[in-house]
Amino acid sequence: LEALQAMYGSELTLSPEDPSELSILVPLTLDDGGCEVVQAGADSPRAVRHLQLTLHVRLPKAYPSEEAPLFAVVSPWLDPESKGAELLSGMRELWEAIRPAPVVAAWAEHLRLEAAPAAGAGPLAIGDDEERDAAPVEGGVVVRAPAPASAAFKAVVDEDARRTGLEAGAVIARCGICMEDVLGSSCVAFAQCPHRFCRACLKVYFEEHIARGDASDIGCPECRVPLLPTEVAAAADPELAEAHERRALQSALAGMEDVTWCPLTHCQAPVVLEAGEHGGYDQLAQCPACRHAFCTLCRRTWHGYGPCTNFRQQWERADDSEKALLRDRFGEAVVAEIQSQVFIEEATQKCPGCRAAVEKNGGCNHMTCAKCRHEWCWLCREAYTADHFARGDCRQFSSDFFAEMAEALGDHELMRWPGGVGVADGSKGEAGLGVFNSELPPPPAPRIAV
């Protein structure tokens, strides 16, 4: 027993009731891409590269000089009739060949080398919910693991994932950021792409994005695939990871028209708006977190359906003296909110991809949403393609683009003209043509980020 414990360590378990009875976990690593397993009665196979079975042994008093151990091979996937019978025969022959030498370790090695399913075999059925006795017997027996099929299937899949992770941790991988070779256990692997990066580099990468407030724009540094909150938490500090998850939730909810926020500064929880009796949303809302009831129009404590039902219309129709009265009554914050809503409606567009409000901050009509990265044309709102401005009626640059160019390059270098820009020398050019001053060097080629 001491020799077996030294050989198998945690994979060997002694029975607390009978010190002569022991169990050895025998891991199998499959070649040729592994095999498929399927829960008995189901039709969704999973590919695995790692299986295991258990060798139960009871050592008689006359072992190993006279008697062979009693044994049972227990597995949720091994077929007792075909492969199982072949293994039992081999184990009996092995005992006859080496007796009276100890045979338990040789049996475990025999199972490790010979028990793997044949390459190209169909999916292995896991479990069948039938209770069976897995006790060791003379001559040996192969037994389906006495466990429900669903639990047995989950145990097989989980064990494969655990051992796959251990293998990955022992492999040398190259970080895609610092390009250093590090152990796989020091790297973070993402679920939706094959790229790996060391935790130290990802920690800096995540912290920079979170500090800038890019809650919805944290992706793989190499391919930009969106990352799960758990993947961010694997490398970022806990506080920053929590802040990122909170901002990501807020960003997602901000794109929903039926969600607002509790106006209390110490709460700020999301509030789902109820449908109104006459369409739209109800003016009354109640925060599910702090139970604060408030008006969704003026954002103040609930005051009934009368005073500010048409607050914005009142504000837009009011003259200066009436606006002063409204400002005194409802406060500067409410007025600023109304003015902000008007500005957003007049100066922004809803992103066709996520419905976030987007302001155009330059003369180029090729837009990219900072939230979801959707690209579209500001003029016609169609999705952007490489030839959009060449094949249609939309122009890529508005007139303010050339004003930006003039400001960036200097008034002494540029003049405004209908078709583009040219160097100004005080003379007049023909329509659509810029006139260059021969005494000045040609203007530098503009580099504009589109």
How is this structure best described in words?
β9 and β10 form a beta hairpin. 31% of the residues lie in helices and 18% in strands. A 5-stranded mixed sheet has the order 1-2-5-6-8, sandwiched between helices. A 3-stranded mixed sheet has the order 4-3-7. Strands 9-10 form a two-stranded antiparallel sheet. It has helices at 2-8, 83-98, 104-114, 149-169, 199-212, 229-233, 238-254, 311-317, 320-330, 332-347, 388-391, 399-409; strands at 12-14, 21-29, 35-39, 46-48, 50-58, 70-75, 124-126, 142-144, 172-174, 181-183, 187-189, 196-198, 259-261, 270-272, 284-286, 293-295, 348-350, 357-359, 366-368, 375-377, 415-417, 420-422. The radius of gyration is 36 Å and the shape is elongated. By secondary structure, it is an alpha+beta fold. Mean pLDDT is 76; it is low at 414-450.
What can be said about this structure in brief?
The chain is α+β, with helices and mostly antiparallel strands.
* Total E-strand runs: 22
Rg, alpha carbons: 36 Å
Main pleated sheet = 5 strands, mixed
Helix content: 25-40%
Query: Largest beta sheet: what is the strand line-up?
Result: 1-2-5-6-8
Parts with pLDDT < 50 across at least 5 consecutive residues: 414-450
Mean pLDDT: 76
The coarse silhouette is elongated
The number of helical runs is: 12
End-to-end separation in angstroms reads 74 Å
The fraction of residues assigned to DSSP E strands is 15-25%
Helix and strand content put the structural class at: alpha+beta
